[in-house]
Amino acid sequence: MSLHLVVGVDGSESSLRAVDWAADEATLHGAPLRIVHAYRWYRYEGTALARELGKPSGHVTPDDILVVATRRARRHHPDLSVTTEAVAEEPEYVLLHEARNAAAVIMGTRGRGELADLLLGSVSLTVATEAHCPVVVIRGSHDNRTTEGRRGRIVVGMADAPTAAVRFAYEEARRRGAALDAVRAWRCPAHDTADHPLLTGTPERLHEERAAKELEAALADAPSDVRLRRHTVEGPARRVLLTASHEADLLIVGRRRPGQFGHRLGRIAHTLLHHSACPIAVVPDTA
Question: Residue ranges of the alpha helices (H) in the chain?
């Protein structure tokens, strides 16, 4: 990551947790951090930030939100290069514009209410679907610190060939000193039986062997300095990766490039964005 990182804030605790994560990530990569607040995002109604500022929540301004976010970013990284901007525009437009020149965009989830960690807001979903750079949505109830990950484990969902998501995962694992679990889900179609004339073994074994070969092909360019662990797991990819997210510090999945039918997020990434138990990075393919 040679470009800056962008984090979107709205004054909620969810977005400030995203600032914590983004500050760690920027420090890991030696990159500047840019904090952006689109103040049509929501009218600020929280109390935590207002208490920190010592003023009623109705008096919190966009500049106040940026001041607190900057303070959070430098709490553990006092020398981090931070720039800020408040923009009078819809957040989707602002963050997608910022994504054009960013190494990654980091966001919280919905931000407010008792279900803040369970529901994904439309802004996060739109940006993850359309951004030209990786988008990280901070989910889960852990401490959201990049440099002090509790699991020491990153998970990447594997496709049939090397992808931008896999290359992103290599870099994240290398910089964190974390193990990288490359997970390939496989399923045995119900119509496959041992009586099929082309099958010489059990259908399950043959499908698993094929998944293992596809996994090896997708990891063909794996760097030697990454602690790589290979997993082929039977089951729907969404279920397999959701289960893996409970023991990971970061889950990474790919997203297809925009084509003639517009942007494609895919059902797997869509489900994981809504339900992952840890931060999730959605990486658009560049091939």
Answer: 13-29, 48-53, 62-73, 91-99, 122-130, 164-176, 203-218, 237-245, 267-275
pLDDT in tens, 231-279: 999 999 999 999 999 999 999 999 976 554 455 678 899 999 999 999 9
Q: Measured in Å, how far apart are the chain's first and last C-alpha atoms?
A: 18
Q: How far apart are CA 47 and CA 228, in angstroms?
A: 44
Alpha-carbon distance 125 to 163, whole Å?
A: 21
Q: Any idea which residue has 């803040």 for tokens?
A: 116
User: Furthest-apart CA pair in the chain: how many Å?
Assistant: 76
Model's pTM, two decimal places?
0.87
And the tokens for 157? 């969902």
For 199, residues 6+ apart whose C-beta sits below 8 A from its C-beta are 192, 193, 206
